[in-house]
Design goal:
This protein has three helices and 32 strands. It has 406 residues and is mainly beta. It has two domains: 243 residues, 3 Solenoid (Pectate Lyase C-like); 128 residues, no CATH class. The strands form two sheets. It has an eleven-stranded parallel beta sheet. It has a ten-stranded parallel β-barrel with strand order 14-16-19-22-25-28-26-23-20-17. Strand 2, helix 2 and strand 3 form a beta-alpha-beta unit. The radius of gyration is 23 Å and the shape is elongated.
Length: 406
């Protein structure tokens, strides 16, 4: 049994309950900050007051006190319709939809309009996929969270969990945005969508997927994707980044049936991010003008970092014990693998195999540079790679500057 199969045998708790749907209203005062320096989120109030900021939607199994204070209460069936109703009621000005703790059973997508913020209360707020559906843009398989259309800008999603529920037959992505038109943006050329503090797990398709030429200025922080894709059925990536000009910090993905993080969009920046236990490469970089700082690839079945295009810069990145194939161990993949491309920098990077549990060293080369790769600069360290510190015909290319110690 390999690591991914072992992890799939571990359950993650999910809950669902039936209730009654109701429409209620409340008026509350915003909480006062304890000091002038404290950042706080006021409680939402209804339209009857002077400080209306959004709507509260309660799950069918939410605590009674939360239901009593909610504007809308879900029944436990087709709950996305109630959430989408709240989004619609906020109108063109947008606003906040706050989800309570509990499980929201979604048989279709929650679709955000411009200037909508959809916030839960952390991992206690679970959007659970039920079944499958087409995406907002007409593609075959949709996601639990999507934009309203291909010209939507300025949404925020945060502080909630998405249960892809594939073990019970659901077939969805976690988050899918594809923004291809800027005609209706109210300012600037960038969509400017924000995602923060999300936990996405058990999707049959990609966990987090962004695409489109106008899906620019995306900001993603503290998003965890775990156990996505069905082995032998779907090649699902933890993060599939096919849009340009985004910034990603403290994202991580483990146990995906595809690549951990697939980057196809240009000019994306990643800081303190990690890919582990992927069935393919940890990081698969096939785009240009990317910046990767303090990122890690650990225990992936393929290469730790595959970089087939440039210019790209990787600094202070670690490739840790890749080529990890438990069922059929073989030293066939590298820590850093550059088959071709030009103007790729690996500065202060380290590539090693820690021989966990005395399984042997399986990571082939610390750094591999193909014969057609040129203007490659590598300053790094290596330890205990199975075949050697460096490999590939490009290592001796006079156009490359390779300095590897260890």
């Amino acid at each position: 049994m390999n690591r991914r199969k072992f992890l799939e045998s571990l359950g993650l708790a999910g809950a669902g309950a039936a209730g009654t749907a109701a429409l209620g209203q409340m008026t509350t005062q915003a909480a006062e900050p304890e000091s002038n320096n404290e950042i706080y989120l006021p409680m939402v109030t209804n339209g009857a007051g002077d400080h209306f900021s959004g709507l509260i939607v309660a799950a069918s199994n939410a605590p009674t006190a939360e239901k009593d204070g909610a504007h809308l209460i879900c029944s436990g069936t087709d709950d996305q319709t109630v959430i989408n109703q709240a989004i619609a009621e906020l109108g063109d000005t947008g606003g906040l939809v706050r989800l309570t703790a509990g499980t929201f059973n979604c048989s279709g997508a929650v679709r955000l309009k411009r200037r909508i913020s959809l916030l839960g209360v952390g991992r206690a707020t679970i959007l659970k996929a039920i079944g499958t559906w087409s995406a907002f843009d007409g593609s075959a398989i949709g996601a639990v969270i999507e934009p309203a259309d291909t010209g939507t800008d300025k949404t925020l999603v945060g502080f909630l969990s998405i249960n892809g529920n594939r073990w019970d037959g659901a077939d969805t992505q976690g988050v899918y945005y594809n923004i291809t038109s800027k005609a209706d943006f109210d300012e600037g050329p960038d969509a400017g969508h924000y995602f923060t503090d999300l936990y996405i797990y058990r999707t049959k398709q990609h966990g987090f997927h962004v695409s489109g030429s106008n899906m620019r200025a995306t900001k993603v922080t503290r998003v965890r994707v775990f156990n996505v894709g069905a082995e032998g059925e779907t090649e699902a990536h933890g993060f599939y980044i096919n849009s340009p000009d985004g910034m990603y910090a403290q994202i991580e993905t483990g146990s995906s049936s595809g690549h951990g993080i697939l980057v196809e969009g240009a000019n994306n920046h990643f800081t303190n991010c990690k890919a582990w236990f992927a069935d393919l490469n940890g990081w698969h970089i096939s785009s240009v003008r990317g910046v990767y700082s303090a990122c890690v690839a650990q225990d992936n079945a393929g290469h730790g970092f595959y970089c087939g295009s440039g210019p790209n810069s990787l600094t202070s990145c670690h490739a840790d014990s890749n080529s990890w194939q438990g069922d059929t161990p073989a030293a066939t993949h590298d820590g850093f693998h550059i088959p071709w491309g030009s103007r790729i920098q690996l500065i202060g990077c380290s590539s090693y195999d820690k021989n966990e549990s005395n399984r042997g060293n399986w990571q082939r080369y610390g750094f591999y540079v193909g014969g057609s790769a040129e203007h490659i600069q590598i300053f790094g360290t290596v330890k205990d790679n199975a075949t050697g510190a460096t490999g590939g015909n490009g290592i001796g290319n006079a156009a490359n500057n390779i300095m590897v110690a260890g």
